[in-house]
Write a structure and sequence with these properties.
Blueprint lengths: L2 H15 L5 E7 L2 E6 L2 H6 L1 H11 L2 E6 L7 H11 L6 E7 L4 E6 L2 H5 L4 H10 L2 E6 L6 H12 L1 H15 L10 E7 L8 E6 L3 E4 L40 E3 L5 H4 L2 H6 L6 E3 L1 H20 L8 H9 L1 E3 L5 E5 L2 E7 L7 E7 L4 E5 L23 E5 L12 H17 L4 E4 L5 H14 L8 E4 L2 H10 L6 H8 L11 E4 L2 H9 L5 E4 L9 H8 L6 E4 L8 H6 L4 E6 L2 E6 L3 E4 L9 H9 L7 E5 L3 H15 L2 E4 L5 E3 L2
Helix pairs in contact: 1-3, 4-6, 11-15, 20-21
Length: 647
């Protein structure tokens, strides 16, 4: 149904089903049809009407108060603070004009809600905004705060962007023979630059657009980019808008090998939507900005600028787990928990009216971790699964989380006993927080002497973003933080390294302690500063807890290299490696071979076809062979630039 007809039909249905409701406007906002009314109470009391309209027009309907009803934000905040008692501990009040909601962050949500919701109702009655009480996060995130402020600044521009997205999304699908195909644009038989093009006769969906941080040199600084220049993606006839035929971009999670080049699309005037979860948006912005800062400080060219990150934010539409939405005329998307990092999502694509279903896993962990529940593998329908194979090789069996934790404890104790320092290269997101939880638990229980743990890079800010989205953490961690009031991230063992001067103090200290620092594969970042100063001391230990990609410095050291050359102030310096090198499997946010096979084996319903990706060549092939032997289904290990018709 064309977008004009959708709006017209929505109006007709409201006139028929709710003639007494005072409707002031009906508009498009991306995949939503937004109905503005002066009578929110009527729709709140009759939710079945909204449901019936949504079923009829086959679109998500959002009913919102007319902006003229809402009290001025400054006055409303004062009124809320007058109504809600001080013992509720209001920490923050912020408004979402697009939805007419006001979010009240309180230390004691129950006190803010009042007996039987009386305070909540009083707030709604007086300020007209729809109040939502949430528990104040124990750590305030600078990124989350700045994101809210920026979205408020670009509110009107974003509204127009979403209206245009809605018009394009609601064009009629093309008639005639229908088909589905995928094009491998990056991350196939390799780790890095993940990108997959999902195509139908009507739509082109780009899933992830990452960079390969282990590839690139001065002459070709972003040679590890996806194959975005192929005709399926790049329109050579329009140099100003080469990505104009891409209907939507879907980002599975915030690591740079999946999101690192999404801003590049906006450099070339892409004007479509980007779908991701809310934590993925915030973490992506943090990591992308840090990527630019590090690259520029090292004198490397960068493929985009900060203004292109801002364009990405304006075009981003966030979804919760389990929320289904149209992303093109014939494709619906649902995100599910992937268990990999905060906000990571398995993407389920429902194509046509029951025509075909594709699941793209992104990176998954099919095991309960200290942070997250295991990856979701129950879907209404699925014919093809495109899944990661990072640890899909025949011998890729990891120890349990408990075994990994015990090994870390043993390494830390031995290093501290001999007066050494423990250096752990980590990604800012995911492994950092898990290692922090493990070390804090051991020190709290007295199994490791209380020892300072220094956090360098973006680790602390990433941790505050975790605190801002507790609903994405597993139940046990939420209970520990909010019910038992034992927040491990607030322990006094953790110390932020916020400046170069502070880093120098830590580096030159003679005391034994632990440092967690980025980057996780040692291809730049502050971890190199610690390594350069501590590598020649056999009392110290370098501990790898995450995947080290081919051609990275981390992989070379892990493989036994005893001498390396790094640059310092433009000059090469040679470093002899005498410190102990340890690798602890089991902390990874990726599933091992056993878990990958169980993920498919317990999937309901069973897919007809598995396509492997995101793994070194041997691992992708091994996993494909293993799954075929075990379950008898069709399995394929595509290469980059391969295209495959699914139906």
């Amino acid at each position: 149904m064309p977008w004009e007809d959708i709006l017209k039909r929505t109006r007709e249905l409201i006139d028929e089903l709710a003639p007494q409701a005072e409707i002031t406007n009906i508009d498009l906002e991306g995949p939503l049809v937004v109905v503005y009314t002066m009578d929110m109470e009527f729709f709140a009391e009759h939710p079945e009407i909204v449901k019936k309209i949504a079923q009829n027009v086959r679109r998500r309907i959002s009913v919102r108060p007319d902006p003229r009803m809402l009290m001025n934000e400054k006055e409303a905040e004062e009124e809320i603070k007058n109504i809600v008692p001080d013992d509720a501990g209001i920490k923050n009040v912020y408004f979402i004009p697009e939805t007419g909601e006001v979010i009240i962050e309180a230390e004691s949500p129950g006190a803010a809600i009042g007996k039987e919701g009386e305070l909540l109702n009083e707030v709604k009655k007086r300020v007209k905004w729809a109040p939502k009480i949430v528990r104040a996060p124990p750590l305030e995130s600078r990124i989350v705060k700045e994101m809210r402020e920026y979205l408020k600044i670009v509110r009107e521009e974003r509204r127009e962007i979403l209206r245009n997205i809605g018009k394009k999304l609601n064009r009629p699908p093309l008639s005639g023979e229908q088909w589905v195909r995928v094009v491998a644009l990056g991350g196939y038989r390799e780790v890095g630059r993940s990108a997959t093009l999902l195509m139908t006769k009507t739509s082109r969906i780009l899933v992830d657009c990452g960079l390969n941080v282990s590839v690139g040199d001065e002459d070709e600084p972003w040679s590890g980019t996806p194959y975005l220049y192929v005709p399926d993606v790049w329109d050579n006839t329009d140099p100003q808008r080469p990505f104009k035929y891409i209907d939507a971009v879907v980002v599975t999670h915030a690591h740079l090998d999946h999101v690192g080049l999404v801003p590049l699309l906006f450099k070339h005037n892409y004007d479509g939507p980007v779908f991701m979860t809310e934590p993925t948006r915030d973490l992506s912005v943090m990591l992308l900005i840090d990527y630019l800062k590090v690259a520029q400080s090292e004198g490397r060219k960068v493929p985009f600028e900060s203004k292109h990150i801002k364009e990405m934010i304006k075009h981003t539409i966030t979804l919760k787990y389990g929320e289904t939405t149209d992303i093109s005329p014939d494709v619906r998307l649902t995100f599910h928990n992937a268990g990999h990092i905060l906000g990571s999502a398995i993407s389920h694509f429902h194509i046509g009216e029951g025509f075909y279903n594709v699941v793209i896993t992104g990176d998954i962990k099919f095991e309960r971790s200290w942070l997250f529940n295991p990856a979701h593998n129950r879907f209404p329908r699925v014919e093809t699964v495109i899944m990661e194979s990072t640890y899909g090789g025949r011998e890729d069996f990891q120890p349990s989380r408990r075994e990994a934790a015990e090994r870390l404890k043993d390494i830390v104790l031995r290093t501290i006993d001999r007066g050494g320092k423990v250096l752990i290269p980590v990604f800012a997101v995911g492994r950092s927080q898990e290692v922090m939880l493990v070390l804090e638990s051991y020190m709290r229980n007295g199994e490791i002497p209380k020892t300072p743990i220094y956090l360098d890079g973006m680790i602390w800010e990433a941790t505050t973003i975790h605190a801002a989205y507790p609903e994405y953490l597993n139940k046990d961690l939420r209970e520990l933080i909010f019910q038992k009031n034992e927040n491990p991230f607030l322990s006094d063992i953790f110390h932020r390294v916020e400046s170069m001067e502070r880093r120098e103090e830590v580096i030159n200290s003679s005391d034994p302690f632990i440092v967690l620092s980025t980057s996780g594969m040692m291809n730049g970042g502050p971890v190199l500063e610690y390594f350069k100063h501590w590598a020649d001391d056999s009392r110290n230990t370098l501990v790898f807890v995450g995947y080290q990609a081919e051609r990275t410095l981390g992989r070379r050291i892990q493989n036994g290299m005893k001498e390396i050359t790094v640059m310092e102030q433009g000059q090469p310096i040679r470093i002899n490696i005498e410190m102990n090198i340890e690798t602890i499997d089991g902390f990874s946010g990726h599933s091992d071979r056993r878990q990958l096979i169980q993920f498919v084996g317990s999937m309901n319903p069973k897919p007809e076809r598995i396509i492997t990706c995101h793994g070194e060549e041997s691992k992708c092939i091994d996993l494909a062979i293993g799954l075929h032997k075990r379950y008898g289904m069709e399995t394929i290990s595509l290469k980059n630039l391969d295209a495959l018709r699914l139906k």
